Amino acid sequence: MFLKQVRIENFRSIAACDVPLHPLTVLAGPNAAGKSNFLDALRFVRDALSSSPAHALEQRGGLEEVLHRSPAGSQAAFFRIHLDLSVSAPGPRGEPRTFDASYLVEVGADPEEDGRPAVRREELSVPGETYLFSAPPTPGQEPNESGREHLELSRLPKDKREFTQVFRRLYSMRFYELHTPVLRDIDQTRRQRGDVVLGERGERLARVLASLARSTPWAKEAIDGYISTMIENAAGLDGKEVDEADLAYVVGRFHEDGSHKEVDRRSLSDGTLRLAGVLAALFQPRALKGSIPFIGIEEPEISLHPPMLGALYDALLAASHNTQVMVTTQSADLLDNPAADPDHLLVLRDDGHGSTIGPIDETGRRLLTDGVLTLPELLRSGEMRPEPGLPRSRQEGDPR
Fold first, then answer.
1. 170, 46 Cβ separation under 8 angstroms
2. What DSSP character marks residue 135?
3. Three-state SS for 336?
4. How far apart are CA 131 and CA 157, in angstroms?
5. Which pLDDT tens digits describe the chain residue by residue (400 residues)?
6. Reduced to 3 states, what is the DSSP secondary structure of residue 187?
């Protein structure tokens, strides 16, 4: 498990939250409860490290679109994201090593720069030391103006081994919001040596499937097994590579009259393609090796036949043995699986005062323990609620 605890303040609908994560975390709740906002706060850290906070905010419509507004309409002055981490990395002699760390970034408007976004605070804690990157310069030292616009964690010398490992793990997180036209399209990216990473909208699906068939056939067989379980008459999906043209495309295999029939990518259903994309994200080579420490997927159940969704939970759980997995869902059918554990869930609700996030509350757990409702029934009934979280004053954006 990479992300152990997440604290967020003033990010979109989230005024404040402080929640633990698990190897598999399911963000469950109705539409517009704040599930995507929670996942996007984690994505923001990755995006800001790979470019800059200003660029990451520009992709989200600007700082004002991200800062939390109270029910009365007042807007917070900053947002803050604080992550507690467990970082696996090679030691000085190559031996496996794990250390705890925490990383905090706070972004607000700079009054001296016409309200442009600026890093107000950046802090990294590793064993025995805490580094406050935004600390003022010592006497005689020139101020680091670039620190206002960029995150220092992405700019540190490579000899800072623990810093580098924290940066690499945060930078390597992946967040998937799959688009069917992208999954269906011909892949014209150049064939590359080494592991192929699935694009976050589903780019390179054919390359990933072909790579798995060559290098990790058991993982490709597992993907085909899930597809055959969940899609009627399906036997699997393959990535076909045309070396002369340097392109690839997806084909389906379906049972027909005792044999397998190939189905063109243009004839594959949206549900089949999306399922293949979800499974490729979970079992792609770098996820199997742990090089991708965290995978977030928006609503993996979209376009899938509800009675088959319980089997998808098995795939999520299996993948979480290799990489940390987080998914958002509104679907009670996804939880219709004996392996679905209430401890895997974080529940989100928005009662008009902003998103409240937490584990299932005491009433919901009692209904489950007493056998009154099953986990899918609890979500479907609307009685699944989060534990009472931070005091209302914090939830309304008080920066204290």
1. yes
2. P
3. coil
4. 14
5. 899 999 999 999 999 999 999 999 999 999 999 999 999 999 999 999 999 999 999 999 999 999 999 988 899 999 999 999 999 877 667 777 899 999 999 999 877 767 789 999 999 999 888 888 764 444 444 444 434 578 988 887 667 788 889 999 999 999 999 999 999 999 988 777 778 999 999 999 999 999 999 999 999 999 999 999 999 999 999 999 998 888 999 999 999 888 889 999 999 999 999 999 999 999 999 999 999 999 999 999 999 998 889 899 999 999 999 999 999 999 999 999 999 999 999 999 998 888 999 999 999 999 999 999 999 999 999 999 999 865 433 444 444 3
6. strand
CB 177 within 8 A of CB 45: no
User: Locate tokens 């679907």: which residue?
Assistant: 331
**First CA to last CA across the chain, in angstroms?**
30
Positive or negative torsion for Cα 173, 175, 19, 156: positive
Q: Are 256 and 167 in contact (CB under 8 A)?
A: no
Q: Which residue has tokens 């079992």?
A: 283
**What residues are paired with 360 via a beta bridge?**
386
Output phi, psi for 345, to 5 deg.
-95, 140
Sign of CA dihedral 18, 19, 21, 26: negative
* Residue showing tokens 């470019």: 51
**3-class secondary-structure state, position 394:** helix
- How far apart CA 389 and CA 386 sit, in angstroms, is 8
| C-alpha span between 263 and 253 (Å, rounded) | 6
Strand partners, 356: 349
Does the model's pTM come out above 0.85?
Answer: yes
